[in-house]
Amino acid sequence: MIDPIAKKQQEYYEKTAAEYQRMHVNAGDKHYRALSYIAAMSGVWGISSFLDVGCGTGRAVQFLHERAFHVRGVEPVGALIEQAITDRPILREFIQCARGESLPFPDASFDTVCEFGMLHHVRSPELVIQEMLRVARKAVFLSDANRFGQGRIPLRILKLLLSKAGVWPVANLIKTRGKIYSYSEGDGFFYSYSVYDSLVQVAKWAEDAYILPLMPQRSGSWYQPLLTSECVLLCAFRRIPDVSQPGS
Helices 4-16 and 78-87 sit at what angle, rounded to 10 degrees? Predict the structure, then answer.
């Protein structure tokens, strides 16, 4: 059974599907920056195939396909898939309808599984990540929100302290007046989420994991990107390549 808020978010995307590109996709934005990083790293890590979870209208699928990677995308909202195919008919064979909590692929089906701005719309992101880790062979990339890099500096520090004390869920419950989620016209229904929330889960699967900022920064802060970037990219690799050996 679909969570009621997930159903509302699906309805939001169905209503705004025709405007999805204008509202959520911009050349050179944070997720484009993430895609550029991922494509650049793929040669070193021997990555050739991708699965994009919650692919929307297929921006990442098209980006990776154009760079000769084998790529598939899953998206639970039929209207977004239809919009993707309308805008770019070639994507018809690459995108299918499925939810991140139940990916229709065997274990280790893809070199890499990634997501771009999807997890902050999910009430239980750990369930989606569990599936992503199951399906991935070599790497997982999370390009998503970081609540610790949002708001004024005192608020960022407070959120970090509350999280470290284990009481952020209670504080967020009070903040949202018992709803847990928030709503905006530009993003629909979303939850308070940071990629850092998922670091331990992903790091247990990986041999190497690190986080990159996705927002332009001029700060020399020691807390970059934790307290300075509102969106970050978590890169997790299952096997560290021996770059000293040609073709490794």
Answer: 30
197 Cβ contact list (under 8 Å, min separation 6): 125
Q: Which domains does the chain carry?
A: 4-237 (3.40.50.150)
Confidence of residue 239 (pLDDT cuts 50, 70, 90): confident
The whole-model pTM stands at 0.93
| DSSP assignments along 25-93, one per residue | --TTSHHHHHHHHHHHHHHHHT--EEEEET-TTTHHHHHHHHTT-EEEEE-S-HHHHHHHHHH-GGGGG
Give backbone dihedrals phi and psi of 41, rounded to 5 degrees, phi first: -80, -20
CB 115 within 8 A of CB 132: yes
| 3-state DSSP assignment of residue 116 | strand
- Render pLDDT for 160-219 as a digit per residue (tens, 0 to 9): 999 999 999 999 999 999 999 999 999 999 999 999 999 999 999 999 999 999 977 666
**In contact, 139 and 45? CB cutoff 8 Å:** yes
